Predict the structure.
Amino acid sequence: MRIAQVAPLYESVPPKLYGGTERVVSYLTEELVRQGQEVTLFASGDSRTSARLVATSPAALRLAGCGDPVARHLCMLDEVFRRAHEFDVIHFHTGYLHFPYGSRLDVPRVTTMHGRMDLPDLAPLLRRFPREPLVSISDAQRSPVPFANWVGTVHHGLPDGRLRFQPEPGRYLAFLGRICREKRPDRAIEVAVRTGLPLKIAAKVDRADRDYFEREIEPMLDHPLVSLVGEIGDDRKAEFLGGALALLFPIDWPEPFGLVMIESMACGTPVIAFARGAVPEVMRNGVSGYVVSTVEGAVEAVRALGRLDRTKVRRYFESRFSVTRMADAYQAIYARLAGGSRGRSAPANSPGAVRERLASDQAVS
């Protein structure tokens, strides 16, 4: 099958540092190529891929600096439309910019929505374009807009060997991602202080979050238990996550998936996560870590970490979040769309979905 993968231009594919969407696009692209598919990747020119790369921007926009990212993305989408006849299916990861033109394509297309869906302007947009085939990255992500044309839910997956299992942790807690209000690094700091354990924060600060960081988080970094590592890439992630007692994921927003959770599980490091968005869907409480609702609950979860088996954490990851499973799920969607079907995926509580969850549970028990 001739497949186009259309990535955002904000980060390279894969990203040099932070960047969840572009990292997932890279994993998917490389696995499709490995399985023998003919893949073309539309991405920034500093991307690295075994697929055919089409670059309309010489470098990723965030690190290189760009005054108008929408203009750059429209140029890339125009190139996609010009070459549409070359593909059997086009897979967009760029949000909704292409929606007004998608219906004019003769080629099957699908869009994975990687972000939150509860923003007030999204519902009228999706009602305006009711035929756009969409993939969610969790069932929870769909809940604000259940009427949209969802054709599948595909959980993220990681390549085998990307993050090595580490059976013996160090003596610190980890926070990895982005410093912003919805990620609640302040909660992670409070948990660390109340448990008396060091906290290492590996995170970036976007320009939009600079004021929040300086006013609310930076003063908390003076505590002797707290250290800011800064933004890290894949070359340091295995050591950082694998060496931690646990990853703290104290979010305060409807998280669409939470890639860092499965990255931590891949290292055998349990996750202590707040029950928002996709967290209960991704986690298995008492196996991959603990799902909590309060800071007090997180403190108690840290104290209960000794009850968890890091081998079972890794086994749970392997049973549910491999890149092979992710690629197979997407290929099934491609084939269905190319065959003219626009059937919706089975509900989360359908017999098939329940059987899959039971099989996953048995694999790690």
Notes: Residues 2-159+323-354 form a domain with the Rossmann fold fold (CATH 3.40.50.2000). Residues 341-365 have pLDDT under 50 and may be disordered. The chain has two domains: 2-159+323-354, 173-319.
